[in-house]
Amino acid sequence: MTVATAPTSPRHRVVIIGSGFGGLFGAQALKDADVDITLISRTTHHLFQPLLYQVATGILSEGAIAPTTREILARQKNVRAIAGEVTDIDLSARTVTSEILGRTTVTEYDSLLVAAGAGQSYFGNDHFAQHAPGMKSIDDALELRGRIFGAFELAELASTPAEIERLLTFVVVGAGPTGVEMAGQIAELAHRTLQHDFRRIDPRKARIVLLDGADQVLPSFGQKLGGKARRQLEKMGVEVRLGEMVVDLDATGLTTKDRDGNETRIEALTKVWAAGVQASPLGRMLAEQSGAKTDRAGRVEVAPDLTLPGHPEVYVVGDLMALDKLPGVAQVAIQGAQHAAKAIEARAAGGARSEPFSYFDKGSMATISRFSAVASIGKVRFSGLVAWLLWLGVHLLYLIGFKTRVTTLLHWAISFVGRGRTERVVTEQQVFARNLIHRLGRAEAYPSLPRVPGDRGELEEGGDDRGQERAAG
């Protein structure tokens, strides 16, 4: 294993962990600051997570919602992006350790912005993940695309009504925005897009079930909008089942339990898990070193100015921070990162800035189907076509890059005005790779990359790296 330290800089050194909304917008906010930024991310793209469900249901390509981080930041000369999964943060030494394919890099910092985000939570039942992918990454969306379209293909080959019914039953767990949007699009896919594509089966007979232990759909939107969303889903043929929790899940179905203790088995090959989030393990790492507390989701309780208690040089934003019960949405991450960037810039200039973070709620929106959405902006609540058009405009605005906006608009026109879905290609790797990697284990799935003489990070005896990466161990 090669361990190397990144090049040092005479300027204020900023390390940003994560390339999501918090990490990317934080880096961009420091564009004109007299600092050197190192952005470390386990992926090489910026993910527009709110549209993942459209990748999973064949509306958009992965490239449309995941532009390359390097391309986005290409003209920002004070930022350097490196790939790697952060394995350690040493608050005392002010270093961040990242690893990729056996190459370990140690990066020093003067200011640290942690925007590592969150993953899917299965509420202690992590084995559910084997048969019910979440909705947190491009890999998740592509796997779900393969599972959803693959279910229709297998149903065309099925020989019994019971087998066809199981294959054409789709269960979405979680009635928040992601679950509602996912259930709505699977319903549109079955009832509209695919209705003429098969000969032995009728896709319109597909059963789409939306499950949640809560009392209503879209709880954060209030009862009025939640009720409208539920009625629209049911009009589309979605079976909404509230007050039920998943107690068991396997390859061919799942078991739910209602509040009276009654258990029900649902036979379904395709399950989508859209319930619950769990903060990055880095949250616990920061808490253990600083003495900060974490909440049930593993988020770090930060000071009002978003700093880690006892460490004014460390900022935690987005899904990894816990402050004033702020929701885990993109705007919280964006505004938090921009607030932290202003403080870092002031700190780099020799000043001090410890103003408390003030979040401006720009509202919430969720689509149900084409031409139908719900929106909550301030005290205003509305739904239908107007909300859907507003949803389109806002999401186009926050997509990165002109090319992405144009192609996304074109795909939307094809899918929403017409019947087509341009992204229906699926592969075996999409469906099976995640579980195979898990079974193989990290060492087998991600082998170390062999080194060659003179490779950066391996300092030859008696040599001089002249400011390049140098061996640290």
What does this structure look like?
- By secondary structure, this protein is an alpha/beta fold.
- The chain is built from 14 helices and 25 strands.
- The chain has helices at residues 21-29, 52-56, 62-65, 69-72, 138-157, 161-167, 177-193, 222-235, 282-290, 330-348, 385-398, 402-417, 428-440, 442-445, and strands at 2-5, 12-17, 35-41, 79-83, 85-90, 95-100, 103-108, 111-114, 118-120, 169-173, 207-212, 238-242, 244-250, 253-258, 263-267, 270-273, 277-279, 300-301, 307-308, 311-316, 321-322, 364-369, 372-377, 380-384, 470-471.
- It has a 6-stranded mixed β-sheet. Strands 5-6-7-1-25 form a 5-stranded mixed β-sheet. It has a 4-stranded parallel β-sheet with strand order 12-11-10-16.
- Helix 1 (21-29) links the parallel strand 2 and strand 3.
- Helix 5 packs antiparallel against helix 6 (161-167) and helix 5 (138-157) crosses helix 13.
- It is globular.
pLDDT < 50 runs, ≥5 residues: 458-473
Count all strands and give the number: 25
Q: Give the assembly state of these chains.
A: single chain
Strand portion:
25-35%
Provide the gyration radius in Å: 24 Å
Mean pLDDT figure: 91
Q: Which structural class should the secondary elements be placed in?
A: alpha/beta
Please give the order of strands in the largest beta sheet.
4-3-2-8-20-19
Bulk shape: globular
Number of helices: 14
Distance between the termini: 9 Å
